């Protein structure tokens, strides 16, 4: 081998070596930070909650559990709370919503602890939940969270063992880089948690509901592939009023998408987008979301 080529190769090797060793250290550091954050025991008192059996409260709780909280979604805790189906995210890992019925975790949680896990993302043992989107639904006003807790308490025990939750190294690193949200409690201000207003069909309320869309469509709702997700996962679209997004859509188009899963171009929506829940939103909620989405600044696709 000619000395120059050899020297170049050694140089390249050194650079690659530095990246590998440096990258390895970065990954190890992030994985460690993830682990110690998940080990944090949060000092947030359990609120004093009494479940209600007022039919109007239970009706509100049912609606929110189905349409907004998504608790009863088959991807989350299942229609009978016995646990969701295992969602496979390739190298990121696998996640299964646990059995939270009275035959599962639900038996161990007091109403106050159930309220705290929804508002703060904190489990009975004081540590953060994984992946459960409390940072997207915890803004619900106290009366609404109490309604959910009251309704869930009326559901019968459902026997089913819990499925796996396994997190790949990449999932931990991406969580630390804020590209995906697994460690939920660290993203919530426990001293003064965000509490939303009472429901009205306005952008002001829609802003809160739209938090439910950010996990997939991105913090700015401009869409793009979910970081680290396997290629067979469908790509969340742009929800801002850009050419590549919802420009030209009417409320009727939006409503048809949520309730029937049919896109503006007539195509069928991929079922990864959870319209089995969102399709049950009431007029106030759908109108509020639409009012919020249409007043967003237009952003090109993919900014997430
Ligand atoms: C679990 C992930 C996920 C969540 C949560 C989610 N979406 Fe989606 N959404 C998707 C995916 C993926 C697509 C594209 C599906 C396809 O191409 O068939 C999509 C498509 C859409 C479309 C169709 C856009 C088009 O151009 O046809 C709209 C509108 C939409 N979502 C609105 C929402 C709203 C509003 C919310 C929150 C209330 C939301 N989504 C929450 C994953 C999600």
The small-molecule ligands in this entry are: heme C
- The percent of residues in helical segments reads 40-55%
Q: Please report which band the strand proportion falls in: under 5%, 5-15%, 15-25%, 25-35%, 35-45% or over 45%.
A: under 5%
Order of helices and strands: HHEEHHHEHHHHHH
| Uncertain residue ranges | none
The major β-sheet equals: 3 strands, antiparallel
Overall average residue pLDDT: 92
Please identify the top-level CATH class of the largest domain.
Mainly Alpha
For the record, the CATH architecture of the largest domain stands as Orthogonal Bundle
Q: Determine the number of helices (DSSP H or I, runs of at least 4 residues).
A: 11
List the keywords.
globular, 304 residues, mainly alpha, 3 strands, Cytochrome Bc1 Complex, Chain D, domain 2, 11 helices, binds heme C
List the topology elements.
Blueprint: H1 3-39, H2 55-68, E1 87-88, E2 93-95, H3 111-120, H4 134-137, H5 142-152, E3 166-167, H6 169-176, H7 203-209, H8 211-217, H9 251-260, H10 275-278, H11 283-294
Antiparallel strand pairs: 1-2, 2-3
The structure holds heme C.
Explain what the structure shows.
This protein has helices at 3-39, 55-68, 111-120, 134-137, 142-152, 169-176, 203-209, 211-217, 251-260, 275-278, 283-294; strands spanning 87-88, 93-95, 166-167. It is mainly alpha-helical. It has 3 domains: 1-39; 55-168 and 179-187, Orthogonal Bundle (Cytochrome Bc1 Complex, Chain D, domain 2); 203-294, Cytochrome Bc1 Complex, Chain D, domain 2, CATH 1.10.760. Strand 1 and strand 2 form a beta hairpin. Helix 1 crosses helix 6, helix 2 (55-68) crosses helix 5 and helix 3 (111-120) packs across helix 5. The longest helix has 37 residues, at 3-39. The radius of gyration is 22 Å and the shape is globular. The N and C termini lie far apart (48 Å). The structure holds heme C. The site of heme C (HEC) has 19 residues, from helix 8 and helix 9.
